[in-house]
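call fold target=Asparagine--tRNA ligase
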Amino acid sequence: MKTTISQVSKHLDQTVTIGAWLANKRSSGKIAFLQLRDGTGFMQGVVVKSDVSEEVFQTAKNLTQETSMYITGKIVEDTRSAFGYEMQVSEIEVIHEAVDYPITPKEHGVEFLMDHRHLWLRSKKQHAVMKIRNEIIRATYQFFTDNDFVKVDPPILTGSSAEGTTELFHTKYFDEEAYLSQSGQLYMEAAAMALGKVFSFGPTFRAEKSKTRRHLIEFWMIEPEMAFMDHEESLKVQENYVSFLVQSVLNNCKLELDVLERDISKLEQVKAPFPRISYDDAITLLKEKGFTDIEWGEDFGAPHETAIAESFDKPVFITNYPAEIKAFYMKPDPNRPEVVLCADLIAPEGYGEIIGGSQRIDDLELMKERYEQHGLNSPAYQWYLELRKYGSVPHSGFGLGLERSVAWIAGVEHVRETIPFPRLLNRLYP
């Protein structure tokens, strides 16, 4: 009977066959311990010389790292491992012998591992990170489906910038100018006017020349937009969504978190509601913490976000930033128009901003003023203005960066390990 490592618990005391690769091995004169992987998980196979033919035992002893095989044996309990099961091997059929596999169990430098990313993905820790990423994606679809959102796919090629920045990848679109999307938000606002509550999930691109551990050139964003919803209601959706993601990973990725040696006690505290601090109070807090140069009206960098997050044991919303440092579409606070109805959600443990969101301007005349202020008079923006002309309503939305969220939940230092094939400032290979 053919099965996979993830399904062996259903075959206790049965003989099964698994297609697998050899991750590692150790052997003595009479027994060989094979560390097997098949994509669904990792498991030990034990080959006892007295229980198999001489040919099978010699095959086991001669197996090289990453050799592929069909391996057959009886599934038994293994209380010593976190996985809980192992295979008592009876047969091995080699499919392809790997020779001189470059990534050995010894330490390798980051650049070497990135050059071999296509192989590094096979390692136990990278496998765990990808499984956690997958769980966050699965939970995202579940959360928004359960809450009556409709998935809408905005275009990747656009004729304009979502936030009016110049950090865009430019391309020719036949005889027109085009850009790779840095956000699907503007299109999602149009979708919300048609479908009520919507979300997108797709790749976005930033030509920002940054080398920090939080930045990628190509990354994935989850961007919900909600008609008839104000800023306060949107914050509740955000904290419930992030809580749901964290609890889903805690419930469904115990083995992976264990492999990564993640301190789950910190994740267990991540339950809505989340604390909030205004931009004004954040400035005061930073000055108290020794950031004496920070002044009202300046944006926060990574050290500032980390210092603010250290004062809380959950993710924290920083609310009501100055209008001058935020995007043109954010709605001013009616009681204080120099700040906008927005929030950034800062993850604990130094992982920085994982969500940016706001209530959007719904007044046509105010949006026209913003167009003038930001020089957005191009015909490419006309359709966005028309959303305020034909049945405008209060609406809000936000964007969550997938890779930063994976890094935080998995406890990974750098976002380059949270996406299968990272695109960095100086890396387009493999």
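return ok
The chain has a mean pLDDT of 96. The chain has two domains: 2-96, 118-417.
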